[in-house]
């Protein structure tokens, strides 16, 4: 069974942990305050899984290092200001889904982003040079992750974007999107991932694949 390490247990991380466990993945989740602070979350998700029929995975709490080490692939979903705390070596050689967004009000000013010289996922890839990073789940409200998906082929199915410099990372993100009920629109390289960042037309709006492509094309920098 595949193990997913989730570094960050906020709204996005918690929703992804729940959704992945429902779909048969084993999840190891970490936050910045220690695994003992996640007892309530793990207890709730474990109870939810015990009450479901069919195949389900498990959820346990760990340190960020342990979550990264245990992972077959990982999700980094921390405030951008805490990116430097994400363990590097345990994630080497692994695919990492990056959900980060830049909120200067929370993260402080980052000149490379303010001056449009970098992207948030580019910063994540630079921090994790031996990992294969893909932008995913950054432009959907956490509450929508488990409630707005639909089966493949559903008319007007919601679509989400990905961006990566690594084909296998992009393919995995698309597979996860489909499992959660979303179509995928591939932006291309990490250098183009700004098109789905905060304040762009595609950010946190419900859109099908054609609408998402139109919004990506309308993005300005």
Brief sketch in words of this structure:
The protein is an alpha/beta fold and 221 residues long.
Protein described:
With 221 residues, the protein is of the alpha/beta class. Helix content is 34%, strand content 17%. It has helices at residues 11-22, 39-50, 64-70, 104-107, 111-114, 120-127, 142-145, 167-180, 209-218; strands spanning 3-7, 26-30, 59-61, 73-76, 95-98, 132-135, 159-164, 183-188. An 8-stranded mixed β-sheet has the order 3-2-1-4-5-6-7-8, with helices on both faces. Helix 2 (39-50) links the parallel strand 2 and strand 3. The N and C termini lie far apart (42 Å).
Unreliable stretches (pLDDT < 50, length at least 5) are none
What is the overall pLDDT average? 95
Number of helices: 9
Total number of beta strands: 8
What Rg is obtained from the alpha carbons, in whole angstroms? 16 Å
- Give the overall silhouette: globular
Structural class: alpha/beta
Task: Please give the alpha-carbon distance between the first and last residues.
Answer: 42 Å
* SSE succession: EHEHEHEEHHHEHEHEH
Q: How much strand content do the residues show? A: 15-25%
**Widest sheet, order of strands:** 3-2-1-4-5-6-7-8
Largest sheet: 8 strands, mixed
| Percent in helix | 25-40%
